Automatic annotation (TrEMBL):
PANTHER family, sorted: CDP-DIACYLGLYCEROL--GLYCEROL-3-PHOSPHATE 3-PHOSPHATIDYLTRANSFERASE 1, CHLOROPLASTIC, CDP-DIACYLGLYCEROL--GLYCEROL-3-PHOSPHATE 3-PHOSPHATIDYLTRANSFERASE-RELATED
Pfam families: CDP-OH_P_transf
Residue ranges the record marks as coiled coil: none
Protein name: CDP-diacylglycerol--glycerol-3-phosphate 3-phosphatidyltransferase
Top-level lineage group: Bacteria
Length: 197
């Protein structure tokens, strides 16, 4: 197992997931204290969870950049990096649904798309090809991270402007998630005819 610097950063992202879930879901009385700025309220545990999520999400670009810049790309990294991304987003979305901050059906759609595209990539690997990340796949990831951050931060700073940015962002994330999933399957439909041969 080649645990170079990029792979260690990716593993750190995975290990941060249970810390986020503890922050968001475990009811420690002292850290559910609410921070208040005028009409804006944010429980301390949500702030901690949001900061952990933002730090973890930001490491995604860092590990990939270092791996390419220093020629440290490994098969382990190719496996761990997308897995870490999916685990991070799925875990926090499930936590948000449990907290009543987003609808469960939205979480199901987003996670189902990830399973479907992962399955498509597995089929491609069995056929000897690799499906690279698409432009829409990258946009999907960015919109999901923005939406999750807005939900965790109780719509900061848009709450002061009476703009429901968090609601708009999660709806946009769901729509782009669906579109990017369809885009992967349409562009790789040849795989299905190959797998029948």
């Amino acid at each position: 197992m080649n645990l170079n610097l990029p792979n260690r950063i990716t593993l750190a992202r995975i290990f941060m997931i249970p810390l986020m879930l503890v922050a968001l879901l475990v009811d420690f009385e002292w850290w559910t204290h609410e921070l208040q700025f005028g009409n804006y309220h944010l429980p301390l545990n949500q702030l901690i969870g949001a900061l952990l999520f933002i730090v973890a999400a930001s490491t995604d670009g860092i590990d990939g950049y270092i791996a390419r810049k220093r020629n440290m790309v490994t098969n382990l990294g190719k496996l761990l990096d997308p897995l870490a991304d999916k685990l991070l987003v799925a875990a926090v979305l499930v936590a948000l649904a449990a907290m009543g901050k987003c609808d469960s059906w939205m979480v199901i759609i987003i996670i189902s798309r990830e399973f479907a595209v992962t399955g498509l990539r597995e089929v491609a690997l069995l056929e000897g090809s690799v499906i690279a990340a698409s432009k829409w796949g990258k946009i999907k990831t960015i919109t999901q991270i923005v939406a999750i951050s807005a939900l965790l931060l109780n719509n900061f700073p848009f709450e002061w402007l009476n703009i429901p940015f968090d609601d708009i962002a999660i709806w946009l994330a769901v729509l782009i998630t669906i579109y990017s999933g369809i885009d992967y399957f349409v562009k790789n439909k040849a795989l299905f005819s190959l797998s029948k041969a």
